[in-house]
Design a protein that fits this description.
single chain; 286 residues; MetI-like fold; 2 domains
Length: 286
């Protein structure tokens, strides 16, 4: 009996070691592109494409970062600010409207609710590229082009995935809580504000994270609607670095700008990391 237990413990230890090694290998593979980006941003321009490839080097320089900060008369800070304005406004607005719509579909009773929700969810099957031209024509007609509005307003009022995710989370909240609050005199909005939102905090944080990252990296939409230099975002700024030098593409500057661009996303992700798995995996409350 003791021998059997010892053999089982050895097998468990061996399996744990194998799993740990496998996870370390996968993590290194996932981290390597970021390491390569940061390393090339610190290399001298003539060493980036040197053969054989130098994965480890101590000949580091901040020249690429200095060039990025000075590029286009210091437009990096303006691009940062524009991206933050767009992403933050869109995220806050999306959380508010999506949570309200999800609350209505999950907890309120009204005629045709299921049919309206089915039609609403069906819009997930429509690719965004299909609607980009009609939307551009509409926004051009009302004078919204070359402003931040086309990048903010549609996302605030129509976020099907956000409504779907929050509704699935809200459905698991016991109706007894809302009934008790109603007996105490709470109306629809007070129940939403004081009961639904606190219980949906993990899901709201994850939706906010997805929305912020998606808006920050939305190069295609920003390229379509923005044209003025003072409206340039960080994604457009990085793309513009390809055409700023007559000697060819300055990959060191591009790598440096890209490294700087992921700092806000990394901060937002690290701050909300503890809610990430909980917000996706949780389907009920304790």
């Amino acid at each position: 009996m003791k021998t059997t237990l010892k053999n089982k413990k050895k097998k468990i230890k061996v399996s744990n070691v194998v799993i740990t090694i496998a996870l370390i290998c996968v993590s290194l593979i996932a981290i390597f592109p970021f390491y390569w980006m940061v390393l090339n941003s610190l290399k001298l321009p003539n060493e980036i494409f040197k053969t054989p490839v130098d994965i480890f080097t101590f000949h580091l320089s901040l020249d690429s970062y200095i060039s990025v900060f000075l590029a286009q008369n210091g437009m990096l800070w303006r691009a940062y600010l524009n991206s933050l304005i767009i992403s933050t406004t869109l995220t806050i607005g999306t959380l508010f409207t999506s949570s309200l719509a999800a609350y209505a579909f999950a907890k309120l009773r009204f005629k045709g609710k299921n049919g309206i929700y089915a039609l609403f969810i069906a819009t997930l099957m429509i690719p965004g590229q299909v609607t980009i031209l009609p939307l551009f024509m509409v926004f051009a007609k009302i004078g919204w082009t070359d402003t931040f509005l086309p990048l903010i307003i549609p996302g605030i009022f129509i976020n099907t995935y956000g409504v779907f995710m929050l509704r699935q989370f809200m459905v698991s909240i016991p109706n007894e809580l809302l009934e008790a609050a109603e007996i105490d005199g709470c109306g629809y909005f007070r129940k939403y504000l004081h009961i639904i939102l606190p219980l949906c905090k993990p899901a709201l944080i994850i939706l906010g994270l997805f929305t912020f990252i998606g808006s920050w990296n939305n190069y295609f939409g920003q390229l379509i609607y923005l044209s003025s230099p003072d409206k340039m975002t960080i994604a457009l700024f990085i793309a513009s670095l390809k055409d700023t030098h007559a000697n060819g593409v300055q990959w060191g500057m591009i790598m440096a700008a890209t490294t700087l661009s992921i700092i806000p996303i990394s901060i937002v992700y690290l701050k909300s990391q503890k809610y990430f798995v909980q917000g996706i995996a949780t389907t009920g409350i304790k």
